Amino acid sequence: IATEIDKRFETIHTGKKHKIMKDVLQSCYRLVWNKTLPLENAILSKEIKDDIHIQAVESLTVMVLAQNIIQTMKDYALYPKKNKPLPDYFYSFCIEKLLNGPLGRFDLDLLLIYCKQTVIMLKAAGIIANDSIKDITSIELYQKLFSAFWNKCNWKNLFPSGGYISNEIKNNRQLLLDIILSTTKPVQLDSIARTYFELTGIANPHNLFAISFLDFSVITWLSFFGIIEYIDVDMQTPVTISLTNNAHIFIQLLNQ
Hints:
The longest helix is centred in the first third of the chain and has 23 residues, at 14-36. The chain starts with a helix and ends with a helix. The protein has 256 residues and is mainly alpha-helical. The strands form 2 sheets. It has a 3-stranded antiparallel beta sheet. The chain has a two-stranded antiparallel sheet with strand order 1-2. Helix 4 (61-76) packs across helix 5 and helix 5 crosses helix 6 (108-124). It is elongated. It has helices spanning 2-8, 14-36, 51-58, 61-76, 88-99, 108-124, 138-152, 155-158, 165-171, 173-181, 189-200, 208-224, 247-254, and strands at residues 128-129, 132-133, 187-188, 228-231, 240-243.
C-alpha cells in the first residue's frame, strides 16, 4: 500500500502521504469487519456444556457486575423506566453488596461508574426493560453483554469523559482488538495506544489524556470481559497488560 501511495502521490508532502496511509488502513478495516461481522451478527446463542468455560465466564468482573444489578432489581423491584435513570439508592444497594463480595478491592466511586455502565449495556442488550428481566443463561448473558458493549452502545454515552474521541475509538475498535490479540507476551499499554493512535489518527500518539482515556474505558472493559489482564509490576514500570489464558476461548465464544 505504501509503495502504491508513493507512486500515485509522488509530488505530495510526506506528512500528507502518512495521512493517506492511515485513511486507507482505516477504510480497509471498516470494510473487512463490516463485511464479516465477526463480533456482531456472528454472536449466536449456543449452549456450552463445558463446566470449565461456564465457571470461567461466571467469575468475570462483567458478570459479577451484571448479576449483582439483575439480582438487586429483583430484590427491590426496581426496574429502569423509559427515559428515566435508576435512583441513586439503587446503586447504593448494588455497591454495598459488591464491596462485601468479590469486588471489595475496587474504589467506591469507580464501582458506581462501572455499575452505571453495566446498566447501559444491559438495556442495550435487551436484558432489562420496564418491569422485566429476560431470563437467559450465563453464557448468553456474557455474549449479549459483549455485543451490546462492542456494537450497540453509544460510546460517547458509555465513556462521556472522552468527548468526541469516544465514538472515534468505537469506529476503529476492531483495529485496537487486532493489535491486542497480536501480542504474544506482556506489553506496555502506552505502546499499544501509540500504535493504535498512529494508525487511526484519532489522537496524537503521545497524547497522555488519550492514552489514559483508552486505558480507563475500552482496555478496562476488555479486562472485565476476561480478554486481557493487567500485570502487576513495580511502581516505576508503565501500565502493562497481557492476554489472559482464556482470551482466545472467550473470543471463540463470542464468534459462535
